[in-house]
Amino acid sequence: MRLSRYFMPILKENPKEAEIVSHRLMLRAGMIRQQSQGIYSWLPLGKKVLDKVNNIIREEQNRAGAIELSMPTLQSAELWQESGRYDAYGKEMLRIKDRQDRPMLYGPTNEEMVTDIFRSSVKSYKDLPLNLYHIQLKFRDEIRPRFGTMRSREFMMKDAYSFDLTREGAEHSYNKMFAAYLRTFDRLGLRAIPMRADTGPIGGNLSHEFIILADTGESEVFCHKDFVGFDTPGENTDFDSVEGLQAIFDKWTSLYAATSEMHDEAAFNAVPEGDRLSARGIEVGHIFYFGTKYSEPMGAKVQGPDGKEHFVHMGSYGIGPTRLVPAIIEASHDENGIIWPASVAPFDVVVINMKAGDQACDDTCELIYAALSKAGKDVLYDDTDDRAGTKFATADLIGVPFQIIAGPRAVANGEVEVKDRKTGARETMTIEAAINRFVA
Question: Which of 154, 134, 130 has the alpha carbon at shortest distance from 142?
């Protein structure tokens, strides 16, 4: 993509409304634009990152055996009346009526709808276990939306819902998502620590929030420092192995980890002082087992091997992609801008023409741009006539992992400079070597 033809409205000044780093940088880099309170458009640069985040989420959900579908954003109030949540849900739910005066709502979540889909189609235990997921825009009328897309009213959510015949089966499904989440966040360049969350009237310990550590986190968290060095489940993880997944779950819940809401001061003090870690955290995922909370009132049951009907055991598993993008920025930035992990960077490399209009510089940049593009790399070519300082500032701000810089003096010697955005290291090499570095 040639920058001269790309839509990326860079802001030179820090927006006054931005309270945290990620909001400020997303606005400055032209990733998002606020349309109204808590509602944002995702501009081309931001959408590229969001799409890559979604692709990683999707790949790991599929790997764990979840099956993707798509459910509508508008839902009938009747389903929520069945479950008993229509009147119980607060003002965060946007309630509307259609032209026939039928009560509708803009879905804040999808437990009722997916339960309705299940009960109309699945009748036998032989069709279990089942996990259905989708990635969809949702709306919750937050009383105080803030921090950009970190806490907005309209947001994107990956919801997965598992269905099992028994509690034991549901625990295995839970462990599948537990391991899948660890893998997902690791691929996004994040160290997410699972922390036990409130299970409400369900009881037990099957509810976990996945928290990343960041100085600008919303709440204080407490954990054992060894979590930072734990190995993430590998690509060869067997998601059908009950014992293997239970071992992963046991390892990652073996040490103290709690948000401020679940914090036990005495238990934390029992951790050796040198192993205690107290920090700020950002929630990036939540998994929850809720048994027959929805299947019983909505009649979602299957025939078991005993010939009797059983209400299915369910769980829900959420990740907010539009929340993850700013969370990644909070965890990875410097004074010059964003530092994207390679897995979600909007471009793999930016080619910077230091003197657009100079024949040698133009030819060199065109050669590199064509070679990398042909090799399947996502390349941004800064072919604008801006000053060198502006080009460098833009490249640093948007956080592309590598910059290939072509200036008249270097090009005259058949060379270019390659800069690593994360470390700041610069290396001069031949044009051919620079191309080979990214296509080998």
Answer: 154
Q: Cα–Cα distances in Å, from 152 out to 141, 144, 157, 289, 399? A: 9, 9, 12, 26, 24
pTM for the whole structure: 0.95
Is residue 170 within 8 A of residue 313, CB to CB? The reply is: yes
Q: Residue 409 and residue 324: Cα distance in Å, rounded?
A: 42
Question: Are the C-beta atoms of residues 224 and 275 closer than 8 Å to each other?
Answer: yes
- Partners of 319 in the β-ladder: 158, 285
What is the DSSP annotation of 44-82? HHHHHHHHHHHHHHHHHHHHTT-EE----SEEEHHHHHH
Q: Give the count of beta carbons closer than 10 Å to the beta carbon of residue 304.
A: 15
**176 half-sphere exposure, CB direction, 13 A CA radius:** 29
Q: Which residues pair with 154 in a beta bridge?
A: 139
* Cβ 153 vs Cβ 194: under 8 Å: no
From residue 368, alpha-carbon distances to 279, 405, 414 in Å are: 44, 11, 12
Side-chain-side CA neighbours of residue 131 (13 Å): 26
Cis, bond preceding 401 (omega within 30 deg of 0): no
CB 314 within 8 A of CB 170: yes
Q: Residue for token digits 């006054």?
A: 16
Q: Residues 362, 398, 232, 243: what is their CA dihedral angle, to the nearest 10 degrees?
A: -100
**Torsion over CA of 136, 139, 140 and 144, rounded to 10 degrees?**
110
Q: What is the mean pLDDT of the chain?
A: 95
How many CB atoms are closer than 10 A to CB 119? 18
In angstroms and rounded to an integer, the radius of gyration of the C-alpha atoms of the chain is 25
pLDDT of 58-101, one tens digit each? 999 999 999 999 999 999 999 999 999 999 898 999 999 999 99
